[in-house]
Amino acid sequence: MSVHRDIRSPSQHCGDCPIRHRAVCARCEADELELLEQIKYYRSYEAGQTVIWSGDKMDFVASVVTGIATLTQTMEDGRRQMVGLLLPSDFVGRPGRSSAAYDVTATTDLVMCCFRRKPFEELMASTPHIAQRLLEMTLDELDAAREWMLLLGRKTAREKIASLLAIIARRDASLKEPRAQTGALTFDLPLTREEMADYLGLTLETVSRQISALKRDGIIQLDGKRQVTIPSIDRLLDQTGDDSDGGFLD
Q1: Which of 13, 52, 230, 244 could form a disulfide with 185 if both were Cys (CB 3.0 to 4.6 A apart)?
Q2: What is the CATH number of domain 5-150?
């Protein structure tokens, strides 16, 4: 059973939430936010703790407020595969589904804004803004999954590493104050190199070698093991193998 702590957050009111503009409540009016306030609570998990196991009953849905979690699936022979990342503003759980489809594990210290599942489902039926936003997020997740299939199947090791760094950098930037597109982006890498290798289908040695190469070429800067600075997001995107239309370079 997962161990969590229900907490009161400094951003207790929805209007002050740092993920408000990206979360499932992004389109809600003031009266709709008040309804959400009545069924929400916060939970915190320490890095490494399991949020929920695949197949367990899930009586809540949630948005990631701060921190990162991983989605993993265990095969019959015990092998585990990381199949996704949950970043701030991502939605956890599925309305209408009573059990978890994947193991969810806190990679870093994690805070989630939770809603009791049944009341949330009832609110969805009466609040089109919530249902509409959840549909948008679900379609975005589908697009991301399709892009990830291409990444794993066709990209080189360097392109995979660059793509993952670009995804994390752009999401981190979207949750911060607006800045010039040409400005440097700095963020803490939420995954260890072992976890990156697992997620990308690479060896640890390959991940370390490619990160060192990106650093040597000035594409990224490293401060310690986790802090990454991207001097130019355009230069990083040039390393991902995608053309300007989102396809692949020849």
Answers
A1: 230
A2: 2.60.120.10
- Predicted confidence band at 249 (pLDDT cuts at 50, 70, 90)? very low
In this structure, the strands spanning 103-106 and 110-116 are: unpaired
What does the alpha-carbon distance between residue 110 and residue 23 come to, in Å, rounded to a whole number? 16
> How many Cβ atoms are within 10 Å of 105's Cβ, its own excluded?
22
> What's the token pair of residue 83?
């199949």
Find tokens 């249902």 and name the residue.
131
Return the half-sphere exposure (C-beta side, CA atoms, 13 A cut-off) of residue 143.
7
Question: Thinking of the domain 156-237, which architecture would CATH place it in?
Answer: Orthogonal Bundle (1.10)
Task: Determine the pLDDT at residue 246.
Answer: 45
In the chain, where are the structural domains located? Answer: 5-150, 156-237
| Spatial distance between the Cα atoms of 129 and 13, rounded to a whole number of angstroms | 19
Is 66 in contact with 107 (CB distance < 8 Å)?
A: no
Name residues whose C-beta falls within 8 Å of residue 131's C-beta, 6 or more positions apart in sequence: 124, 125
Q: What is the structure's pLDDT at 245? A: 47
Helix runs in the chain, H state only? 30-37, 117-126, 128-154, 157-174, 193-200, 204-216, 233-238
* DSSP H or E segment with residue 41: strand 40-45
- Per-residue pLDDT tens digits for 125-145: 888 888 889 888 888 888 877
Cα separation, 158 vs 155, in Å, equals 8
- Kindly state the DSSP code that residue 242 receives in the 8-state scheme: B
- pLDDT per residue over 65-102, tens digit each? 998 898 888 888 877 778 888 989 999 998 888 899 89
Beta bridge partners of 3: none
Which whole-number Å values give the CA distances from 128 to 34, 134, 180, in the listed order?
A: 15, 10, 34
Rounded to an integer, the average pLDDT of 192-206 is: 90
